[in-house]
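[Discussion] Sanity-checking designs against the backbone

I'm trying to build intuition for which residues belong where. Below is a structure token string of 551 positions. I'd appreciate it if someone posts a full sequence so I can compare it with mine line by line.
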């Protein structure tokens, strides 16, 4: 026994050999396990490097092989000049060349356009000289995208719509035409006779209405005026053909109008003269214009709340304010179709649900149509330019209360035809205000002024005691707009100067300037003469301002 134990200690492997096949199998499994783990580790490493290679390939493909869209380089300012021309009070901003920067469209009247294209003369379109041209200029550098003669005389224009998913301008012109023009190319999409009454005046604006003839495209409504007779003309938005003409509406005085959609989705046309405000449902106008019933897909209805407030015999709406009606202004859709009535000495906000008065405030004579902006965060306020004697004031009226939120501490001198103010929404949910005039610096209001020069002023509610005096000029301003040329950035203003149609031709200038450039060279004015900060810090505050696109 002892000899066996001794032999096992001397030759330990003999014990395993004596166990037979089971002992060998266990040994083989122990040797195979590390080999499997090694192969698995190799596969994982290979998979990692393969994934890394694929990711790097995609990154390099997008960085170098696949071209990225080139961001257009916008000039800080540009201007384009047309000689021996006159212009219309019309500016439109649309992305014509699809570079995600707004472009500028405007109309002018001249014998020939400043272009070498074959259709740059009136005779190329069978028109006598001079004639009306429509031009599109790049928002980045002012280059001409296209321009062409469109009519002998331009009566109406709207570049905010589409024709079968193609951006288009709609124009009404003489001699008696209605035309749709592609915004991208300037080519005619369709052109039809307007069939308007001879010697009648075409009223503005051109209205886009729901599809009333069942062709799947929104239709158009144009009003004409002759003496004291108003007539509505309906056109197909798809082909431009006239599809109906409403019976005569007898309204006393010159008529203007506004389309409103009630909270219940009913369409109404508000027509107003100096003496009265009238309302006609689009359904009623269509029933007057069409012999056959209106197509059921149009969904035209009448709002019971409005019908109760409208006099069934005269179609008048009774208001609390008195005086001559000058303007109607549509409030944002979020305000339940409310609208402003501007009178000679009063401003009234009318409830768009029941046509009741929400507030009435007394104002001096209003010089131009009110402009909407935000003095308080997320509020819709009203900016007025009012006239007192030979001077004017800029007022901000609270949209919810009717109270005066802000006014220039001293009066602003201005000509009678000063352009409307403009507003741009800022990132702090308020607005920057832009308006023209000449600030009267002496406190007793006895400054002299020749009526020619005027300056652009900037104001923001964050600094209620400050005005920035920026650009100046002596040219007659035909149109003025504050514009965000790119989404939430590239804040600029666009200016159109020159003689209007009906005046002797002269030099027409279309120009753009970035606000930052105007701010950098501006002069700081303290409204209450109490200096609270350095002028450079004030400019820096305006330069750091960020903007947001309207909803």
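Best answer:
Here's mine. Compare freely.
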């Amino acid at each position: 026994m002892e000899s066996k134990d001794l032999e096992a200690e001397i030759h330990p492997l003999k014990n395993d050999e004596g166990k037979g096949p089971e002992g060998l199998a266990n040994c083989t499994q122990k040797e195979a396990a590390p080999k499997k783990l090694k192969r698995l580790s190799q596969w994982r490493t290979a998979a990692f490097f393969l994934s890394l290679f694929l990711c790097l390939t995609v990154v390099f493909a997008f960085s170098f092989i696949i071209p990225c869209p080139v961001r257009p380089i916008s000039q800080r300012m540009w201007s384009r000049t047309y000689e021996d021309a006159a212009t219309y009070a019309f500016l439109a901003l649309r992305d014509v060349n699809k570079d995600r920067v707004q472009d500028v469209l405007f109309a002018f009247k001249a014998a020939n356009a400043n272009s070498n294209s074959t259709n740059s003369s009136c005779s190329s379109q069978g028109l006598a000289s001079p004639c009306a041209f429509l031009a599109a200029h790049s928002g980045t550098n002012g280059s001409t995208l296209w321009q062409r003669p469109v009519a002998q005389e331009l009566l109406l224009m709207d570049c905010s719509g589409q024709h079968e998913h193609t951006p288009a301008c709609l124009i009404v012109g003489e001699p008696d035409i209605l035309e749709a023009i592609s915004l991208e190319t300037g080519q005619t999409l369709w052109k039809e006779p307007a069939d308007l009454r001879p010697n009648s005046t075409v009223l503005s604006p051109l209205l886009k209405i729901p599809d009333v003839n069942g062709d799947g495209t929104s239709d158009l409504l144009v009003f004409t005026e002759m003496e004291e007779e108003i007539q509505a003309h309906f056109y197909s938005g798809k082909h431009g053909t006239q599809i109906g003409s409403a019976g005569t509406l007898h309204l006393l005085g010159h008529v203007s109008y506004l389309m409103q959609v009630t909270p219940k989705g009913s369409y109404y046309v508000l027509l107003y003269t100096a003496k009265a405000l009238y309302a006609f449902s689009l359904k009623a106008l269509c029933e007057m214009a069409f012999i056959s019933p209106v197509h059921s897909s149009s969904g035209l209805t009448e709002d019971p709340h409005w019908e109760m407030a409208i006099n069934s015999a005269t179609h008048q709406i009774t208001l609390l304010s008195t005086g001559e009606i000058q303007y109607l202004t549509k409030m944002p859709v979020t305000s339940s179709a409310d609208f402003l009535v501007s009178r000679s000495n009063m401003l009234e906000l009318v409830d768009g649900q029941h046509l009741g008065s929400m507030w009435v405030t007394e104002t001096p004579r209003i010089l131009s149509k009110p402009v909407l902006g935000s003095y308080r965060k997320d509020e819709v306020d009203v900016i007025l330019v009012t006239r007192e004697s030979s001077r004017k004031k800029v007022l901000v009226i609270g949209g919810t209360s009717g109270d005066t939120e802000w006014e220039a501490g001293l009066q602003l001198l201005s000509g009678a035809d000063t352009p409307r103010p403009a507003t741009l929404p800022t990132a702090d949910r308020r607005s920057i205000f832009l308006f023209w005039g000449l600030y009267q610096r002496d406190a007793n209001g006895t400054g002299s002024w020749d009526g020619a020069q005027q300056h652009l002023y900037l104001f923001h509610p964050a600094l209620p005691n400050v005005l920035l005096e920026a650009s100046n000029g002596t040219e007659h301003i035909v149109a003025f707009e504050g514009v965000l040329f790119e989404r939430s950035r590239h804040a600029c203003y666009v200016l159109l100067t020159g003689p209007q149609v009906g005046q002797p031709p002269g030099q027409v200038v279309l120009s753009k300037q970035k606000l930052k450039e105007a701010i950098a060279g501006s002069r700081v004015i303290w409204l209450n003469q109490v200096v609270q900060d350095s002028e450079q810090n004030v400019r820096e505050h305006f330069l750091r301002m960020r903007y947001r696109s309207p909803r």
